[in-house]
Amino acid sequence: MSKHIAFIGLGNMGGPMAANLVKAGHQVKAFDLSQPACQVAREHGVEVAVSVAEATEGAGTVISMLPASKHVESLYLSEDGVLALLAADALVIDCSTIAPASAQKVAQVARTKGIHMIDAPVSGGTAGAAAATLTFIVGGPVESLELARPALQAMGKNIFHMGDAGAGQVAKLCNNMALAVIMGVTAEAISLGVAHGLDPKVLSQMMAVSTGRSWATEICNPWPDVLESAPASRGYSCGFGNDLMLKDLGLAVEAAIGSHATIPLGELARNLYAMNRNQGRGGLDFSSVVKLFLKQD
Ligand code: NAD
């Protein structure tokens, strides 16, 4: 019998991803520090352990979906961390978005212990996590990716191998930097139209079939009640948090400094999402950045 999958981090993304593994017939033991997150996962048929140690004991695969680099490094590299607990031929799939250097650091330790590891950050948002249509953006050895493929296919639709350890994270940062800029300018454009008396819904419908078309006009429109399924139409809740986007833009800026790349729009976007956080919207979906452009009468 194949060994179980330990799933660590049952938040907005990890919860539905773990549920999809169960639906696809994988045996999953999960853990999250947050009791409400554990409860939601249980309601979706996921077995929840009381600790990381209980979830990972005897696991063949560990999947993590945590907020940032420090959480991932602590999970895997601390004295009683997961890499110290796993058997030599185990597989680690980290789906969190973290610094490429952190991913390389964890992968390096895994390699010395004979543990397979890939960085596999995702794109597709909470809707993609729920529908098992995520895109996995992978860094690490091809043979480790092949071991991971059945689990990835249970949670997503597209898998891209970008290169060695950390390359998945670099590619993910490139994607999110583009998304941040596009969301910012879409919010700005719709606000300009509304300031001139245009209907935001008709303006968005026009843009969605014109050259201003993007994920921000079609799927995650920042203006409330333009798209029923967008976070903007539910008070900017349960989406991709502003602070997570801000984190990703900080990582993109760090990566640019390290490689002497120039990212003027990415740096501007980092400041926009920092302003949005400083106005109290750090926990809301990042499309709430539109509020920066509303006219105060
Ligand atoms: P989230 O904050 O909803 O979930 C993170 C979960 O990790 C929380 O439930 C938290 O309690 C848990 N956690 C933290 N430390 C832990 C530990 N040591 N052990 C167990 N659980 C722990 O975040 P999310 O939206 O699910 O995002 C997770 C990652 O995915 C982030 O890196 C984010 O950048 C990335 N991501 C998010 C989205 C999105 O749309 N939300 C899209 C793509 C990528």
Give a nutshell description of this structure:
By secondary structure, the protein is an alpha/beta fold. 50% of the residues lie in helices and 13% in strands.
Q: Ends: how far apart?
A: 66 Å
Low-pLDDT segments: none
Adjacency order of strands in the biggest sheet? 3-2-1-4-5-6
SS class: alpha/beta
This entry's quaternary arrangement is: single chain
What are the secondary-structure elements, in order, as H or E? EHEHEHEHHEHEEHEHEHHHHH
- CATH architecture annotation name of the largest domain: 3-Layer(aba) Sandwich
Query: What is the third-level CATH name, the topology of the largest domain?
Result: Rossmann fold
Shape: globular
Report on this structure.
The protein has 297 residues and is of the alpha/beta class. The protein has 2 domains: 5-164, NAD(P)-binding Rossmann-like Domain (Rossmann fold, 3-Layer(aba) Sandwich); 170-293, N-(1-d-carboxylethyl)-l-norvaline Dehydrogenase, domain 2, CATH 1.10.1040.10. The protein contains 13 helices and 9 strands. The protein has helices at 14-23, 35-43, 52-56, 69-77, 82-85, 100-112, 125-131, 142-155, 167-195, 200-208, 215-218, 242-259, 264-281; strands at residues 5-8, 28-31, 47-48, 61-64, 91-94, 116-119, 122-123, 134-139, 156-163. The strands form 2 sheets. A 6-stranded parallel β-sheet has the order 3-2-1-4-5-6, sandwiched between helices. A 3-stranded mixed β-sheet has the order 7-8-9. Helix 1 (14-23) packs parallel to helix 7 and helix 12 (242-259) packs antiparallel against helix 13 (264-281). The longest helix is centred in the middle third of the chain and has 29 residues, at 167-195. The chain is globular. It binds nicotinamide-adenine-dinucleotide. Nicotinamide-adenine-dinucleotide is lined by residues 8-14, 31-34, 37, 52, 65-67, 71, 75, 96-97, 122, 125-126, 240, 244.
